[in-house]
Amino acid sequence: MDTEKILHNFWRFGPILLRDAAPLAIGAGAGVRYWIRTRQAVSWPSTQGTVQGARASRSEKGRRGWACVLTYSYAANGEYYSGSYSIRARKEQQAEELAVQWKGRSVAVRYSPADHKISVLLKDDQVGGFGN
Description:
Layout: H1 3-41, E1 46-58, E2 66-76, E3 79-89, H2 92-102, E4 106-111, E5 119-120
Antiparallel strand pairs: 1-2, 1-4, 2-3, 4-5
């Protein structure tokens, strides 16, 4: 195949490939970023937080199933912050049961020493894990 044909095929199919591959690449990047953050968070300071809200929600694009989305607040160095965490669930009923179970509960929150508004909930820090 000569160079001209290769270029012609690239310009013909390249945008389609980029359009289809972009969401996958973005999702993979977000997953890697979350994995790195949780690995780092093991050494971050910890504080008690409170689950302010919990609701059942369909899982994010491309994923099947449901999630229980927790919103929590915490204080670090006298300032208040908030964050969110999703617990995967197979069915809507399971996500709703988790929401009832978690609303108002205390949680252990890890926050970045460099930027206190960055936080995570680690399963191992929670009494009984996340129960899913």
